[in-house]
Amino acid sequence: MQRLSIESLPRAPMGRTFFLFAFLLATTLQTQAWAQASAPSVDPLVERREVSAWLNKIHRAAQMQNYVGTFVYQRGSTMRSSKISHFADKSNEYEELETLDGRQRRILRQNEDVYTLIPEQKTVFQEKRESKDSFPALLATPNRDVLDYYAPKVLPNERMAGFDCMVIELTPKDEYRFGYRLWADRNTGLLLRAQTLDAEGHLLEQAAFSQISIGVPSEKARIVHAIQATHGWHVIKPQITATRLSDAGWSIDVDKKVPGFKSVREVRRTMRSTVDGKPLEVQQVVYSDGMAGLSVFIEPATRERKEGHGNAGATNILIKRYGDFWLTLLGEVPQATLQQFASSIEYKQPAK
After folding, report:
1. What is the pTM of this model?
2. Which CATH number fits domain 237-347: 1.10.260.40, 3.30.365.10, 3.40.920.10, 3.30.200.100?
């Protein structure tokens, strides 16, 4: 099977997953060792409860705190920086994300409505937020206990971006997940740094704030005004409808092979074919174990593609032909996980 470069492949839409990626600072680019110096023994049940509470605190902080900062994302030799402003009241969230490198992009969000601005073209992409786990948020499904699949460990406190931080390490219990190391502000719980590590403890990617202010006055009116200022721009709304994969004849029975990953979203995307310009329907199902996520895309084989696999940092991709369809699997999981998912996909022509 051909080895592929992710950057050279057609980009399929997804969340975080599957998708705003977060961005890292490197005060050092050296990977820390996966194993830390031995510490006094801790009751595993007590440690698990403590870490579980912290993971949910981290997730809530990203939604409820007011903060403004600059964070950097590193994947391999690639580094990108962005500025984020986030404000919340009792029932609403307002967010602005602005790229600081390369072509200017500005993303505004009010609750679940996301607006991606392309100023030079006076164009705005308007869509619904696909996931709630973009940095500095964490859990895709906060009500699930992800520690069934990761062994938790509390490490010594460290300082990050001027804040005293709780440091947590999550070691995967099988080969189908990556490990994580997290730094969270001890006072508010806001995630200030996150690393993704492979089975040997090597750094795959990381995101971290280089500067951040927490508890700042709200500027939600500025974000609302910026959204309203796009009136008259060219608006593009992706055609996405909720669906069930089974209605189209597909099934993915992967739980026995890769336990813990559950379907969290199933949609049908109507896209324009690159071959003849006609509408092309792409099925997408998103899976998550709470921390890690992946997407499966299914499309008719109306264009020439090549089977293969590739990776960039923690993101792996697998492309396979299945009869008259192309399968694309993409996510922040090991390649072995994608292979197991691909081998679990079955299609039966639905009854008319």
Report:
1. 0.85
2. 3.30.200.100
